[in-house]
Design brief:
This protein is an alpha/beta fold. It contains 15 helices and 14 strands. Helix 7 links the parallel strand 5 and strand 6. The mean pLDDT is 97. The structure holds ligand F0G.
Length: 459
């Protein structure tokens, strides 16, 4: 008999989980104004809010922390981190930052000015925020296939080369760089193919523009290239990563995802002028160039995490767990962004809660129902997150309305995946009875989803 697939690690330290009653959860929901960001984590049974900074470090990472050199300048930990990044990506210049948005802030302070245009594939919120706060524009050139959740496409995170070329041809003088997010979080953790990375680089070269990878989940992306793209099945993850970065000039990194640490980030580049420019902003915003807001021990843990995650065993265990959960949802007929991506399931709430009108926020309603059902916390990536149109102040109902269920790295077992799937099925089975959603009672102008106060609509 062929042996089944199993995790490539065993567990050395555990943390208790607390269950709660439906009555308790009802009360906590009320106190949280039906915004799951306001819940105490003690009141959550399985937390699928994000895969960012929520993973478990390995014994080797914890051991590396003891080697941390806390010198203000010239820390040995920095040089170990730099050596690892250079070896994996080929980028010679490295600037550490406290997390991904810190890297964006430092690099974009050098590169982006008012009136600029930064084309890319579904810029992440903070990336878009750092572009728009500089009065520049983020233009989304993701392929149209990404908008149809039921369409099967192996690389739904791809940039549409025709859309990109058009933006470049029309605005060449206003474009500081092209950004490619690997994997494409907003489109559902969807990968970008090597062929597409190559094509983007060729188009950018034609207009003499540089390419930056937003690299938060670059290892997940490499795994999908290995398993889905012709010619890569026999290459190692490290070889694929190395090739990916030959099509980039620089990267911003949130190490809280594929760096396997709880906090951290960095910028890396092959260009001295990018490095010299960004350096000027690292010191006032993040700290001296050899720590950038991180402890020495954080940099050591990150160096080991990057090496560890770019080994097939580790990344395969991660992706297969997400795919295991997706297969359960297939069994129950629950619609999500297909095929499942690397870090999360994105349930298509519009297709589940068909009785809840858009104006009553179906994905947020589904998030609330799943918490009510089993204490599982997901995250709305939909109409609340989309904020209002800055000019008309109307809600933006044009995009997808999804419930994102993120899977933390090396934290939950497949038994927890079974619980998530069963809880979602219970909600799905009573979907026709759910006729009303929520209304907004208080909100901020930008990024309202973090603090919004909601109330249930009863009739
Ligand atoms: N880029 C991508 C693609 C991300 O997903 C994130 C964070 C960032 C940049 C910013 O990095 O949080 O370290 O400052 N994503 C988290 C999430 C918050 O839940 O998807 P950060």
């Amino acid at each position: 008999m062929e042996l089944p697939f199993a995790e490539s690690w065993k567990i050395k330290m555990v943390e208790p989980l607390r269950k709660s009653t439906r009555e308790e959860r009802e009360q906590w929901l009320k106190e949280a104004h039906y915004n799951l960001f306001n819940l105490k984590s003690d009141h959550v049974y399985i937390d699928c809010l994000t895969d960012s900074g929520t993973g478990a470090m390995s014994d080797r990472q914890w051991a590396a922390m003891m080697m941390g050199d806390e010198s203000y300048a010239g820390s040995a930990s920095f040089f170990r981190l730099k050596e690892t990044i250079t070896r994996l990506t080929g980028f010679e210049y490295v600037i550490p930052t406290h997390q991904g948005r810190g890297a964006e802030n430092v690099l974009f302070s050098h590169l982006v000015k008012a009136g600029d245009i930064v084309p890319g594939n579904s810029h992440f919120d903070t990336t878009k925020g750092h572009i728009e706060s500089r009065k520049a524009f983020a233009i989304d050139c993701t392929i149209d296939e990404a908008k149809d959740t039921q369409l099967e496409h192996p690389f739904k995170g791809n940039v549409d080369p025709a859309k990109l070329e058009k933006v470049l041809a029309e605005n060449a003088d206003k474009i500081p760089f092209v950004i490619v997010t690997v994997t494409n979080n907003t489109a559902g953790g969807q990968p970008v193919s090597m062929e597409n990375l190559r094509a983007v680089k060729a188009i950018a070269d034609k207009y003499n523009k540089r390419v930056v990878f937003d690299s938060a989940r670059f290892v997940e992306n490499a795994y999908f290239i290995k398993t889905r793209e012709a010619g890569y099945a026999d290459k190692t993850i490290k070889e694929i990563v190395k090739e990916m970065y030959t099509y980039a000039d620089a990267m911003t990194m949130s190490a809280k995802k594929d760096g396997l640490v709880n906090m951290g980030g960095f910028i890396a580049t092959r260009h001295e002028d990018f490095y010299e420019g960004a350096k000027r902003f690292c010191i006032p915003f993040e700290g001296f160039l050899t720590y950038g807001g991180l402890n020495g021990r954080d940099m050591d843990a990150l160096a080991v995490g990057l090496d560890e995650n770019t080994e097939l065993d580790n990344i395969e265990t991660r992706i297969k767990q997400v795919q295991y959960l997706a297969a359960k949802l297939d069994e129950y007929g629950i619609p999500y962004q297909r095929p499942v991506g690397g870090h999360a399931i994105f349930v298509d709430a519009d297709r589940v809660l068909t009785n809840v009108p858009k104006e009553e926020f179906p994905a947020q309603t589904l998030a609330i129902e799943l918490y009510r059902e089993a204490g599982i916390r997901g995250c709305e990536i939909g109409y609340i997150l989309a904020d209002r149109d800055p000019v008309t102040r109307e809600n933006r109902f044009g995009g997808l309305d999804l419930l994102r269920l993120c899977i933390a790295r090396r934290v939950y077992t497949n038994n927890h995946m079974d619980v998530i799937a069963a809880a979602l099925k219970n909600v799905y089975d009573r979907r026709d009875e759910i006729k009303h959603g929520v209304k907004i009672v208080w909100e901020t102008e930008l990024m309202r989803h973090f603090t919004v106060k909601l109330a249930p609509i009863t009739e």
